[in-house]
């Protein structure tokens, strides 16, 4: 009992430092755990927290640059665009705690909400997580297939995914750079064990949707390379965008 | 100045969005609505950056912190829980945490300020609404209440809250026992609380 009392007293005395976030990590965690068990400390902490809240709003006003807003909104807009590719009814659930790539593997039990959340969580690295985007009884089931951008600098600013819906598919891109000079982007479909075949027209858009002539076969991969205008019968460069096998 | 794009997908013109309360915007953000997020950003980026700048002392770091905080808010908007306070308080709490992380990663201690003095840039944003005017006045009054605290209490609170120092570091810096530092933090916060309450009470009566 005296150990509990001692712990309580220590935590109580540390509550000021706690709400000011002045405790080293281990102590912070220890106080947090104690708060779960102790109503007295909880009440006191929440009152002190109100003062910390007032402190947070007290600094002299300094206006951020316009460029900051543009940077934030560029990322947000890019992610929103790809999210909406899952369908307007797609909802977002709380983001998963850890953004792990193991979420890339298809999980048929995912709801639209969890899928869209996994999508959002995976966007940071230019990789988009597989979702099972069933958006409602009146719409055909559509799903997003993960697409990886192989150039790291481009991946930091751009996003890509393939949406498969019924017997149709399309490539969604946002924020790609212009293709290299005197080249255009070309889509390919590659079945396991076979060479890539050209799929649809060439394109040079930075953001938007590119139709793929048909839905994807099992294990098929969608690729994007840059090619001379008019396209090539076979890729002449390593792919910039590669999807996970469908 | 740009305004939020009219969202075709949701058919909600920007005028309607601006009329929504923060809490309602948060549930739209949860559905991935970028234009709702943009309104939240516009409302709270100023206060967020002001806090980050007060703590980090440099524009670029403060902007990075603010950007990180808002992107985290966009990606996990569902974590906002109205029972825990206003959206603004929640946003500023996130900014504060990110700034503390940035400060503790950075070994350059002289960036951290103990006080508000010496911040040359004061870009006074035009107070557009009554809410903003009231907030500005409250901020001014909290700063002056902090100024009225006994200096040893004010100092440890500012070093901790705005400087991001731990109590161990503060004890070392001031050559004072840790227990004393903790005690001053608590006393200072309690004194602030009672003075803020007294101010609110007198405003309510006036």
Please describe what this structure looks like.
The complex is a heterodimer of chains A (246) and B (206). Chain A has 246 residues and is α+β, with helices and mostly antiparallel strands. Chain A has helices spanning 2-19, 25-37, 39-56, 66-84, 112-122, 152-157; strands at 142-149, 159-165, 168-174, 184-190, 197-198, 208-212, 221-227, 241-243. Chain A is built from 6 helices and 8 strands, in the order H-H-H-H-H-E-H-E-E-E-E-E-E-E. In chain A, strands 5-4-7-8-1-2-3-6 form an 8-stranded antiparallel β-sheet. In chain A, strand 2 and strand 3 (168-174) form a beta hairpin. The termini of chain A are far apart. Residues 88-139 of chain A have low confidence and may be disordered. The termini of chain B are far apart. In chain B, helix 2 (22-30) packs across helix 3. Chain B has helices at residues 14-19, 22-30, 34-56, 59-75, 87-105, 130-148, 151-161, 167-174, 178-205. The longest helix of chain B is centred in the C-terminal third of the chain and has 28 residues, at 178-205. Chains A and B meet through helix 1, helix 3, helix 4 and helix 5 of A and helix 3, helix 4, helix 5, helix 6 and helix 7 of B.
Beta content of chain A comes to: 15-25%
The count of helical stretches of chain A stands at 6
Poorly predicted regions of chain A: 88-139
End-to-end distance of chain A, in Å? Answer: 60 Å
Mean pLDDT of chain B: 84
Mean pLDDT metric of chain A: 77
Which regions of chain B have little confidence, pLDDT < 50, spanning 5+ residues? 1-12
Helix/strand/pairing class of chain B, anyone? mainly alpha
Gyration radius of chain A, in Å: 25 Å
Lateral arrangement of strands in the main beta sheet of chain A: 5-4-7-8-1-2-3-6
Oligomer: heterodimer
Q: For the report, how would you describe the main beta sheet of chain B? A: none
Outline type of chain B: globular
Biggest interface, chains and residues, is: A-B, 52 and 80 residues
Question: What structural class results from the helix and strand content of chain A?
Answer: alpha+beta
Number of helices of chain B: 9
């Amino acid at each position: 009992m005296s150990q509990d009392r001692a712990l309580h007293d220590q935590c109580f005395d540390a509550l000021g430092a706690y709400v000011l976030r002045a405790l080293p990590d281990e102590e912070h965690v220890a106080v947090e755990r104690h708060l779960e068990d102790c109503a007295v400390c909880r009440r006191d902490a929440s009152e002190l927290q109100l003062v910390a809240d007032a402190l947070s709003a007290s600094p002299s006003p300094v206006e951020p640059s316009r460029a900051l807003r543009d940077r934030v909104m560029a990322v947000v807009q890019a992610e929103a665009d790809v999210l909406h590719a899952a369908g307007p009814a797609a909802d977002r659930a709380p983001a998963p705690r850890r953004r792990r790539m193991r979420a890339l593997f298809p999980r048929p039990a995912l709801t639209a909400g969890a899928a869209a959340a996994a999508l959002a969580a995976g966007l940071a690295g230019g990789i988009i997580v597989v979702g099972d985007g069933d958006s409602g009884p009146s719409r055909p089931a559509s799903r997003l297939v993960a697409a990886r951008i192989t150039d790291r600098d481009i991946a930091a600013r751009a996003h890509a995914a393939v949406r498969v819906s019924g017997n149709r598919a399309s490539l969604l891109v946002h924020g790609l750079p212009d293709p290299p000079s005197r080249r255009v982007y070309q889509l390919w479909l590659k079945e396991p064990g076979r060479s890539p075949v050209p799929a649809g027209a060439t394109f040079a858009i930075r953001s938007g949707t590119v139709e793929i002539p048909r839905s994807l076969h099992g294990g098929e991969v969608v690729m994007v390379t840059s090619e001379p205008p008019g396209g090539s019968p076979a890729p002449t460069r390593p792919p910039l965008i590669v999807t996970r096998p469908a | 100045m740009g305004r939020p794009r009219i969202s075709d997908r949701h058919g909600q013109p920007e005028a309607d969005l601006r009329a929504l309360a923060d809490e309602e915007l948060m549930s739209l953000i949860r559905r991935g609505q970028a234009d709702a997020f943009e309104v939240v950003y516009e409302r709270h980026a100023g206060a967020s950056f002001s806090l980050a700048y007060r703590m980090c002392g440099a524009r670029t770091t403060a902007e990075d912190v603010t950007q990180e905080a808002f992107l985290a808010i966009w990606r996990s908007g569902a974590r906002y829980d109205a029972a825990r306070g206003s959206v603004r308080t929640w946003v500023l709490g996130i900014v504060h945490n990110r700034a503390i992380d940035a400060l503790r990663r950075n070994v350059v201690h002289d960036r951290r300020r103990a006080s508000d003095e010496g911040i040359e840039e004061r870009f006074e944003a035009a107070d557009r609404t009554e809410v903003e005017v009231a907030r500005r006045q409250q901020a001014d009054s909290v700063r002056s209440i902090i100024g009225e605290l006994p200096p040893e209490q004010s100092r440890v609170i500012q070093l901790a809250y705005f400087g991001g120092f731990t109590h161990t570091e503060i004890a070392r810096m001031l050559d004072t026992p840790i227990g004393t530092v903790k005690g001053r933090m608590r006393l200072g916060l309690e004194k602030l609380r009672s003075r803020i309450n007294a101010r609110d009470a007198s405003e309510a009566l006036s």
